[in-house]
């Protein structure tokens, strides 16, 4: 019997279409898996069900009745609970308060019933007692817990809603094997009790261990649904890839045409840090090395560690034959390393300041400028801005007067006034338009042809497949496979990203 049905659901954010056509049928007493690449629309679909995102079109039926999920409270009233991929815990509150947050027990209609709160929380803590660790207690503050324990608290919070429909958006990403096994035991018990569960995972072994059916979403559209018992991991990946098994759509960019030097520009040996482990590779002068895999598998953390923000905990990196000092970004900059983040609002632009001040701080740092005339700085900045086809009215205008794409061009241009030896690109095109992306990748290839060594992480597979000479696929914080030449296909990229880590 169908418990929940979504038909033709869509959602756009301005010009960005997050979900073109989302269809899903969830049966009573079923674990239904959603799978798709980064940005395919899985999380958007689930947030629509949970009321945190309102659809632009489409129908949502619950028990055969059309419903409007106007917000999280409405979802709760309809019997829908969700585990969010981005944890929604109150850091400075206790474990018990977080678990019971959706429905705090009250006394006298106003005051929190502390005894009932603790009793309810301990019931869910006990479910994970053997795998959670002694520190996870009802009265422990959430900010004193490890990452895996915090994730368990978020899971308990979803379970405590006692909702007939439960949605789990990548709930196992920070859990160890024993914790995952225990969680799956609990989910099987809920399924046997008639609960309906939507489960998003990027691990193929988990999908086949817990799912009854799997629905594949690709490029914002539901492609199809299969019974887990009647399919294979290879068939699921083929459905995710579609007909584009080779290089991605040619309109994005032309494949690299340059020949890399044999000289090693950057050598990384057994580098380990927060979010990644035992990573080794070499980048040659004139080479674009891609970092692929699902979002959050250690790619960004690796690039930040090479830039000293924060430093790695073990291993070594060398520029040519000189040891790379990763104690701070200042040290990395002094050795010719540049880092560009896709999160320009946090790691890029200097808000409220003129374009000139945003484009020249690295030049000032590298040349130890204490005082400088704006005219001289403008002479240095303009060629770099022109190389990126940056559109702006004047260097004295605020950075906030520019579009997102042009703001990102400013962030990139600041590194090109005094060209670095190593360019680390951390999802640099996130949130910018196609025209700006085209300009950026044309420049990246030109810089590579001039001998720059480039390490590129992108959450968009097409950008890697069309621009990187080689791709290191990350899975679980480590490199699971290297793809080069004819091996650079969507199928191989997805297979390495989704296989058991």
Strand % is 25-35%
Q: Which structural class matches the secondary elements?
A: alpha/beta
In CATH terms, the superfamily of the largest domain is P-loop containing nucleotide triphosphate hydrolases
Q: How many helical stretches?
A: 19
The radius of gyration computed from the alpha-carbon positions, rounded to a whole number of angstroms, is 25 Å
CATH class of the largest domain: Alpha Beta
CATH domain topology of the largest domain: Rossmann fold
Topology, number of strands = 22
| Oligomer status | single chain
Biggest pleated sheet = 6 strands, mixed
* Average predicted confidence as pLDDT: 88
Please explain how this structure is put together.
The structure is a single chain. With 501 residues, this protein is an alpha/beta fold. It folds into two domains: 2-241, Rossmann fold (3-Layer(aba) Sandwich), CATH 3.40.50.300; 275-498, Rossmann fold, CATH 3.40.50.300. The strands form five sheets. A six-stranded mixed beta sheet has the order 6-9-10-3-11-12, sandwiched between helices. 46% of the residues are buried.
List descriptors.
501 residues; Rossmann fold; six-stranded mixed β-sheet; globular
Concise summary:
This is Sugar ABC transporter ATP-binding protein. The chain is α/β, with parallel strands linked by helices.
Write the layout of secondary structure elements.
Elements: E1 2-13, E2 16-27, E3 31-35, H1 42-50, E4 57-62, E5 65-66, H2 72-78, E6 80-83, H3 95-99, E7 106-107, E8 111-112, H4 114-127, H5 129-132, H6 147-159, E9 165-169, H7 177-192, E10 196-200, H8 204-210, E11 213-218, E12 221-227, H9 233-241, E13 264-273, E14 276-284, E15 288-292, H10 299-306, E16 314-319, E17 322-323, H11 329-334, E18 337-341, H12 344-347, H13 355-359, H14 361-366, H15 374-387, H16 404-413, E19 422-426, H17 434-449, E20 453-457, H18 461-467, E21 470-475, E22 478-484, H19 490-498
Parallel strand pairs: 3-10, 3-11, 6-9, 9-10, 15-20, 15-21, 18-19, 19-20
Antiparallel strand pairs: 1-2, 1-4, 4-5, 7-8, 11-12, 13-14, 13-16, 16-17, 21-22
Helix pairs in contact: 9-19
GO molecular function: ATP binding
Pfam family, one: ABC_tran
Family: Belongs to the ABC transporter superfamily.
């Amino acid at each position: 019997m169908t418990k929940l049905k979504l038909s033709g659901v869509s959602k756009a954010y301005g010009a960005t279409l997050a979900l073109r056509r989302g269809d899903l049928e969830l049966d009573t007493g079923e674990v239904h898996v959603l799978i798709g690449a980064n940005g395919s629309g899985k999380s958007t679909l689930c947030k629509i069900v949970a009321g945190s995102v309102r659809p632009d079109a489409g129908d949502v039926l619950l028990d055969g009745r059309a419903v409007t999920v106007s917000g999280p409270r409405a979802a709760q009233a309809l019997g829908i609970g969700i585990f969010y991929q981005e944890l929604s815990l109150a850091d400075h509150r206790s474990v018990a308060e977080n678990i019971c947050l959706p429905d705090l027990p009250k006394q006298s209609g106003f005051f929190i019933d502390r005894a009932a709160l603790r009793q309810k929380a301990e019931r869910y803590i006990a479910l994970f007692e053997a795998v959670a660790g002694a520190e996870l207690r009802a009265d422990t503050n959430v900010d004193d817990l490890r990452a895996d324990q915090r994730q368990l608290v978020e899971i308990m919070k979803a379970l405590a809603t006692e909702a007939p429909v439960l949605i789990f958006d990548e709930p196992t990403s920070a859990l160890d094997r024993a914790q995952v096994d225990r969680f799956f035991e609990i989910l099987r018990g809920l399924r046997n009790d008639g609960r309906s569960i939507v489960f998003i995972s990027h691990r193929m072994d988990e999908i086949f261990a817990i799912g009854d059916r799997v629905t594949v979403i690709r490029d914002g559209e539901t492609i199809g649904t299969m019974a887990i018992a009647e399919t294979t991991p290879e068939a699921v990946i083929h459905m995710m890839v579609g007909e584009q098994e080779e290089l991605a759509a040619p309109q994005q960019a032309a494949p690299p045409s340059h020949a890399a030097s044999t000289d090693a520009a950057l050598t990384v040996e057994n580098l380990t840090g927060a979010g990644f482990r035992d990573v080794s590779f070499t980048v040659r002068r004139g080479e674009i090395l891609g970092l692929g895999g699902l979002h959050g598998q250690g790619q960004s953390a690796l690039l930040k560690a090479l830039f000293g923000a924060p430093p790695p905990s073990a291993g070594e990196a060398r520029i040519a034959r000189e040891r790379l000092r990763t104690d701070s970004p200042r040290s990395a900059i002094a050795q010719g390393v540049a880092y560009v983040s896709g999160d320009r609002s946090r790691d890029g632009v200097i808000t409220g300041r003129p374009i000139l001040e945003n484009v020249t701080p690295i030049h000032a740092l590298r040349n130890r400028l204490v005082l400088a005339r704006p005219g001289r700085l403008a002479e240095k900045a303009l060629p770099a801005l022109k190389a990126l086809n940056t559109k702006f009215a004047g260097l004295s205008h605020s950075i906030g007067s520019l579009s997102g794409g042009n703001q990102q061009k400013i962030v990139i241009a600041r590194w090109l006034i005094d060209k670095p030896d190593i360019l680390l690109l951390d999802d640099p095109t996130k949130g910018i338009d196609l025209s700006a992306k085209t300009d950026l990748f044309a420049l990246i290839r030109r810089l590579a042809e001039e001998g720059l060594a480039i390490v590129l992480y992108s959450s968009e597979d097409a950008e890697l497949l069309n621009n990187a000479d080689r791709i290191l696929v990350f899975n679980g914080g480590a490199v699971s496979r290297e793809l080069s030449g004819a091996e650079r296909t969507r199928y191989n990229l997805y297979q390495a990203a989704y296989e058991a880590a």
